[in-house]
Write a structure and sequence with these properties.
Number of helices: 0
Strand content: 35-45%
Number of domains: 1
Largest sheet: 2 strands, antiparallel
Strand order of the largest sheet: 1-2
Number of strands: 10
Radius of gyration: 17 Å
């Protein structure tokens, strides 16, 4: 970890909780979905007073497998007295399939 000039830890930028589930995949008796929960990385600037967050999660283990996601949120979406971020994407390919998902982060 890097320290500032005074030997103090750098100020952490904000993060968001992200909780959701993926869309159902599979047919009949193999139809299933997964859930996930994570905390985003710290805010990263992307110009014009906006920012995004890196996100990684591993889904629950269902139907003898799990999936992962590694990507980033979209920019800040202003709501009420704060903002949220949206992710629309797909998981990794595991057990011969992927799952689509759409999630909105917690409010900051």
């Amino acid at each position: 970890m890097e320290f500032d000039y005074y030997g103090q830890c750098p100020r952490q930028r904000h993060v968001h909780e992200i909780v959701g589930s993926v869309k159902v995949a599979g047919l009949r008796e193999n139809a299933h979905c997964h859930r996930f929960s994570t905390v985003s990385g710290q805010a990263l600037s992307c110009g014009c007073n906006d920012h995004y967050h890196n996100v990684f999660f591993r889904t629950t283990f269902d139907n003898d497998h799990f999936h992962e996601f590694c990507g980033r949120t979209g920019g800040a979406i202003r709501v009420c007295n704060g903002h949220v971020h949206e992710i629309r994407s797909v998981t990794t390919m595991d057990a011969g399939h992927r799952h689509r998902f759409r999630v909105v982060s917690s409010l900051d």
